[in-house]
């Protein structure tokens, strides 16, 4: 699986500028990719002014993602602000090259910024199959909640919900240590690759972001991490190596079972 992510300095509340900037970066890719990952709220930055920036589904950003997926032959994913049925959502869209898509609404809303007062929380997690991989995309603050991120499997089984856990984020540099530590923790406890994609720069509320976008393997080893610069990074992940490690170290067989109440 060739995963590509964009660690970008986003324009505040300017979808047109952000999509133009991201599109330019996407078309500089030296090699084909299977999965393109964009940050959280990649058209606006992390904003509580949902009324000013929200779009209905199947409008500008949705159609742009569909176009990018078709032209690159890759899944394109990231979140933006959507208005639907009178509610605002921090919604991740999973867009395939053939135009099929799914959505995940951020479950854990960052109350310290008032996100829970503006946006409606999601109620379902998605796991998508792509190129032989099972991938679970989540959003930012979800990273702090291991139960929601749990890679569950049936008792006495080597089957897993997912092979790759994605987090798209606008995670401020003031809490970068937590970001770095939790990405590794989620990889270790779930016997999974983890990719975390964050932004850089300063947003319209003067919050700085250090990026620290990273690729973590199933042992918790950092395969890649970069801070403080804009970048487009491509990384190849091995399903063979993941399955071999899971067979050798099946810690999931000793995991506690539980039921999640929503």
Task: Summarize the topology.
Layout: E1 2-7, H1 15-26, E2 35-37, H2 50-53, H3 60-72, E3 75-84, E4 87-95, E5 101-105, H4 115-118, E6 128-130, E7 133-139, H5 146-149, E8 164-168, H6 176-190, E9 193-197, E10 200-202, E11 208-216, E12 222-227, E13 231-236, H7 239-248
Parallel strand pairs: 1-2, 2-3, 7-8, 8-9
Antiparallel strand pairs: 1-13, 3-4, 4-5, 6-7, 9-11, 10-11, 11-12
Helix pairs in contact: 1-3
Question: What does this entry look like structurally?
Answer:
This protein is α/β, with parallel strands linked by helices and 262 residues long. It has a single domain, classed as Nitrilase/N-carbamoyl-D-aminoacid amidohydrolase. It is built from seven helices and 13 strands. The strands form two sheets. Strands 6, 7, 8, 9, 10, 11 and 12 form a seven-stranded mixed β-sheet that branches. Strand 6 and strand 7 form a beta hairpin. Helix 1 runs parallel beside helix 3. The mean pLDDT is 96.
Short note summarizing the structure:
This protein has helices at 15-26, 50-53, 60-72, 115-118, 146-149, 176-190, 239-248, and strands spanning 2-7, 35-37, 75-84, 87-95, 101-105, 128-130, 133-139, 164-168, 193-197, 200-202, 208-216, 222-227, 231-236. It is α/β, with parallel strands linked by helices.
What pattern of helices and strands is seen along the backbone? Answer: EHEHHEEEHEEHEHEEEEEH
Gyration radius, in Å: 17 Å
Strand content: 25-35%
Tally of helical segments? 7
Instruction: Give the helix proportion (percent range).
Output: 10-25%
Which blocks of ≥5 consecutive residues have pLDDT under 50? none
**What do we call the CATH topology?**
Nitrilase/N-carbamoyl-D-aminoacid amidohydrolase
Indicate how many domains the architecture comprises. Answer: 1
In oligomeric terms, what are we looking at? single chain
The gross shape turns out to be: globular
Q: What CATH architecture do you see?
A: 4-Layer Sandwich
**Beta strand count:** 13
Instruction: Quote the average pLDDT.
Output: 96
CATH homologous superfamily name?
Answer: Carbon-nitrogen hydrolase
CATH level 1 class label: Alpha Beta
Biggest pleated sheet? 7 strands, mixed
The CA-CA distance between the termini, in Å, is: 33 Å
Structural class: alpha/beta
């Amino acid at each position: 699986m060739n995963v590509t992510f964009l660690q970008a300095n986003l324009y505040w509340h300017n979808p047109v500028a952000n999509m133009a900037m991201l599109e330019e970066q996407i078309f500089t890719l030296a090699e084909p990719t299977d999965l393109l990952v964009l940050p959280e709220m990649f058209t606006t930055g992390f904003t509580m002014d949902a009324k000013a920036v929200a779009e209905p589904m199947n409008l500008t950003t949705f159609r742009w993602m569909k176009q990018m997926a078709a032209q690159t032959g890759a899944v394109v994913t990231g979140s933006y602000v959507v208005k639907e049925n009178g509610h605002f959502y921090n919604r991740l869209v999973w867009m395939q090259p053939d135009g099929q898509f799914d959505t995940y609404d951020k479950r854990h809303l960052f109350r310290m910024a008032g996100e829970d007062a503006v946006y409606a929380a999601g109620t379902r997690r998605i796991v998508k199959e792509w190129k032989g991989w099972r991938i679970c995309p989540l959003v930012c603050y979800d990273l702090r909640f291991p139960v929601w991120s749990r890679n569950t499997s049936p008792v006495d089984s080597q089957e897993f919900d997912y092979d790759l856990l994605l987090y798209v984020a606008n995670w401020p540099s003031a809490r970068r240590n937590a970001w770095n530590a939790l990405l590794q923790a989620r990889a270790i406890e779930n016997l999974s690759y983890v990719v975390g994609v964050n932004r850089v720069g300063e947003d319209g509320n003067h919050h700085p972001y250090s990026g620290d976008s990273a690729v973590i393997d199933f042992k918790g080893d950092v395969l890649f991490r970069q801070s403080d610069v804009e970048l487009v990074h491509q990384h190849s992940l091995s399903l063979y190596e993941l399955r071999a490690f899971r067979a050798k170290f099946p810690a999931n067989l000793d995991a506690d079972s539980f039921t999640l109440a929503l």
